[in-house]
């Protein structure tokens, strides 16, 4: 089968930005067609594939550091990669973030291909061009916008994804539903979390969430107007929980789930969110076995102390995303640290 025939069968979406556009392909068996698809989108011949096996990176957020990015660059230099090379990020969100960061800084920028291997990464970190690494003070404090040239979502890789890893992806799905798609929120209540991972259902779910995120990104590509900030719903508290747990206690989606619950509590006070809708959010998170309350021995003060390192604090004010109802959200500076403290006390 020739490249044109392969492309015609592709299921996906084109994301168009001011200065570039790229394809997101969503289907089964895409990794088997990788060579042909690369040939369609990239004329370059040499590349670096960044994943834990091929370039040694321990799994988890602890690997997302400037030191690790430098080590990857050193290996690429030693291998002779130049300005006409490209980087493939094959793995979850951590791999996508750091490989994108490396692609952005190597020779002042070379193409990046995202091949996410988790449901979470397919619908979130692989879209939008945000790359970065962590510091000791916070998550993603060093980074650059560098959109991928191509995103390949091969649904086959989800068949062996551990259940906990699979379910954490639904935290981002539920977040997208809360801020932009009330219909999807209602439909998720009929999704059987324990059922087989049906390819067609997953394909439609990934595509729907990619469309939601890309639509927001296209309106605010460089994160200047505040529109893109809507995607941070639940993340202010979620990132603080991750840091307080030393990036080991909770997966990203699990920390986000807790952040969503906190954001809903704040939204009740600051945006008029009906309590019954907050309860519906909690019920939906629990359907996918996501946490909605903190362990009793988890120090909430550590979470509160971690908040000050969040990028969404500007000029001493908190840029916080609230929801007045399922399917809508907006950015406000009315939320106080006391509001967040009270929400943490309720978790």
Report what the structure shows.
With 347 residues, this protein is an alpha/beta fold. Helices cover 43% and strands 18% of the residues. The chain has 13 helices and 12 strands. It has helices at 3-8, 34-41, 66-78, 93-105, 119-123, 163-180, 182-188, 199-219, 235-244, 252-270, 275-287, 300-306, 337-346, and strands at 12-16, 21-27, 47-50, 86-91, 112-116, 130-135, 138-145, 150-154, 313-314, 317-318, 320-325, 328-332. The protein has a 6-stranded mixed beta sheet. It has a two-stranded antiparallel sheet with strand order 6-7. Strand 1 and strand 2 form a beta hairpin. The chain is globular and about 55 Å long.
Structural descriptors:
alpha/beta; globular; 13 helices; 347 residues; two-stranded antiparallel sheet; 6-stranded mixed β-sheet
Topology:
Elements: H1 3-8, E1 12-16, E2 21-27, H2 34-41, E3 47-50, H3 66-78, E4 86-91, H4 93-105, E5 112-116, H5 119-123, E6 130-135, E7 138-145, E8 150-154, H6 163-180, H7 182-188, H8 199-219, H9 235-244, H10 252-270, H11 275-287, H12 300-306, E9 313-314, E10 317-318, E11 320-325, E12 328-332, H13 337-346
Parallel strand pairs: 2-8, 3-4, 4-5, 5-8
Antiparallel strand pairs: 1-2, 6-7, 9-10, 11-12
